[in-house]
Amino acid sequence: MMRKKYFLFVFTVLWLLISIFPVYAGNTVVKFEVDKNYPPFSYTSEGRIYGFSIDLANIVFEPDKFDVKLSSDEWHKVYEKLVKGQVDVVAPVAILEERKKYIYFSKPILTRHVGLYTKKGFSKSVSLKNLKKFKIGVLKSDYTESILKEKLNVKVYSTFPTVEKLIFALANGKIEAALVTQEIANYFIIKNNLSDILEIKIKNIYITKSAFGISKKRPELVSYIDKRLSYLEDKGIFDELYFNYFSTYSPEYYERKNRETILTFLFILAIIFFAVSLTVLIMIKINKRLEHGKRAYESYAQLLADNANAIVLTLNLKGEIIYFNKFAEQLTGYTSEEVIGKKWTDIFIPSHRREYIENLFSKIAEEKVLNDHENEIITKNGDIRWILWNNALIESPYLNEPLIISTGLDVTQIKKTQQLLEESYEELEQTNEELINALETLNKNSQVLEEEKEKYKFFVDNVSDLVFELDINQKKIELYGKLKDSFDVETICSTKSSLVWLEYLHEDDRGKVFRKFQDAIFLGDEYVELDFRVKDKCGRWRWLSSRAHINYDEQKNPEKIVAVCVDWTAKKEYENKIEYLAYYDTLTGLPNRKLFEETLEDWLKKTKAEKSTGAVVLIDIDNFKDINDIYGHEAGDEYLKALGEKVSEYLKKLEVKTFFARVGGDEFAIIFHGLVKKEQVIEFCAQLLKIFESEIYIESIDRHLFTSASMGISFYPDDGKNVKEIFRNVDMALSSAKDNGKNDFQIFMPFMLMKNLKKIEIEKNLKKAIEEDQFELYYQPVINLKDMEIHSVEALLRWNLPGKGMVSPLEFIPVAEESGLIVKIGEMVIEKAFSDIKNWERKGIDYINMAINLSVRQFKTKFFVDVVKKLIERYSVDPQKISFEITETGAVENFDVSLKILNFLCQMGIKFMIDDFGTGYSSLIYLRKLPIGGVKIDKSFISEIESSKESRAIVEGIVLLAHKIDLKVVAEGVETKKELEILKEIGCDFAQGYLFSKPLPKTEVEKLLIAKKITV
């Protein structure tokens, strides 16, 4: 162990020297060139070159051995340069016998497939034997040109400098067919939206191996590249790179992605049902209106409006209220007498919205109709209600002036609950029946009811979503309502088939709708309720909720179907969006914690029936906060998204059933269900660690990042019977993995539960200890080895727990660190230490200095500097007598933050010491930049300084190095006179340990401070 520490120290010193003096070295230059437009192998964007070939070359040629000079050009020029030796390596190059005369090849890196592409619907018969008859195109100097010329014996053809130009030539009709690499052609066809124009006519005509092409001038590169390729294949790195590129550049991939595309949501919920009541009553009373004339008509209109389950308003273009129905009175608390003649905006609209609403009146006057408008109103008691409005301007010779009829639906509850229409069916049932009967009456009265029919159509077209009427005997279809213009009515009505409307339904709904009507007719039912999707003229699928009435003739045969439909599209899309947000992470697209827990609960139930075994793995990215702090949250988000994709792709390859989710900011969780043996999870986690350690390119910062991860594993049903138990146990396992140094995984063990319970008990007692001030400080003297006088004391925290006595710092400090209580405890330590040194000054002990230990968590809090300043002012302590001790690892963690804090406090006069020097992993390069006053050598080196040459050499090296950069050295844990003599010989400045004094309460150490010297 000491030998390892010795070599570690020597290496660290050498690294410091290397960093101070310039080093000159050179790597072997390799000129690597690619086709500038051959994606996904290679392509250029904004002056940079990307692609599979470039990424592969970067990992093949080790950066400490080779300096890769990257360039790109058109393919025929690239190949010409390779043959002439102007470039060293090119990729990918098809392996052809004729090329072996001019260049070397590495071992194959991939297989490319050659296919023949034509336009879709190309009527001529095409085969490999009659290609001479057609205008054929190929990529210039590509291996496909050799195949066309030598294998297929086609001598007359056209060449193109890039595959993209070749594809466009085919699409534009300049050539009739293209012989091209399928992987590249598929990419450009998809990229340029040519899937509906071009197709592959003959697949896999030739299958060709491709490799790195190497200049005859660089034969030594062949064996090196082959060796590196074998290494990358063995480690799985090559396969991972290949999969990342070629799993996506195919039509099948895009078809799958398109199926997964989530419907965009609309912002408005247009549900208008009260107008149905108005229309129904109008139709039912048609004949009576004809009999009673204009006065009867007005009476019935009044009756309709007063009984409507919605607001009905009549306003003039100034916004003055002319009519205010009973429902409006009930909803707002105002009577019609209170509001008629007054402006709508003055009474009901909040002041900040009045100008906007007044502008709407002008818009209604211009456009005649303004539907699906939503705004809030204020009721008499001050409540806010949200109303969904339909507004229509009515101009008629019966009216003295144009009037606005506004019908409003109270959607306050809908906005709160996002539940639409579920509670409206009972109210709609009777009105729908009446509407259907009214429609039948309307059709039977021809000339007499023509004028009323026009009025009916006006109301239906402006306030109903869709009314569908099918005359089965005459095979005639009629559509009414606001949505009628959304459908190709002429085509539907011109087709002499009573089933033509089914063709416009979604294929998943078509059979269901047909069977519902079929069953209803078989049973003689009159009413059918159903939801379905129907395609409009724009090709968009609309959700309709329908209640249909089937009319039968005297022989009980169906003769007519009338259906009233409400457009549910907005509701459905909103529900889908809400469901997605409830169960999926918006950044990564992965399931969230809620869906993960529900899935785990389902699988736990299956476990009992299947008698199977599963495991839950909880993953925490180590130090992910550093990525956000250094590179920004945008880079952090991009990294999380890319990492989620890589893990998902790996899990898809496994034979066991898996479920992957993001359950926290930088936490992921995986369920492995149906394990054959528990050891499988060990293998899976080992591979997952490699994925986290692999580099990921982050586009927003143009660099590669990698991390490590800690994982906890809990098996079910062995470790828990429910979700809560399993999550508790896997979280403890994760904590154990992080405590053991991170970048590892830990299986849950029963002792962890006991340990956790003990930790909880300690944390509870710590909180009480802070409240009751159960802590006290002990002090250990630090001796100046030149005169053997006491130079300073180190403040050490002790906890006297009532009923249990002294609790070891090793037991409670880690719990305080983890829980965050160390911040408050640390503040108490500083305050007690400042108070004690001030009391000693009053007693004449004014020479003494005070050393105080800091935790990293306490040191990095944003209030730390303010706390120290406040306590210095409160106790009037001389800052130059204070030194803070912090570990070297803690000092360089978040280096910029540490440097800022240290510089500020050092300007006040406070000194800093690096504690336990030599045991951390920090670099001396960092330490030399920090404003520290000295280092404390860890007692593990001092305890072996007599018996171990390595330990003595390390201590001598630390002292020598520290003195060279003007740092003082304190030796900890000095217990023998021989250790003291050696430390004096090598020039150590200060020492502390049981040889001089153990840590003492302040009253006892005060006696030593008065004496100044300690006799050894």
UniProtKB/TrEMBL annotation:
The keyword NAD does not apply. Residues 371-423, 528-580 form the PAC domain. Residues 296-367 form the PAS domain. Keywords: Coiled coil, Membrane, Transmembrane, Transmembrane helix. Pfam families: EAL, GGDEF, PAS_3, PAS_9, SBP_bac_3. Residues 411-452 form a coiled coil. This is Diguanylate cyclase/phosphodiesterase with PAS/PAC sensor(S).
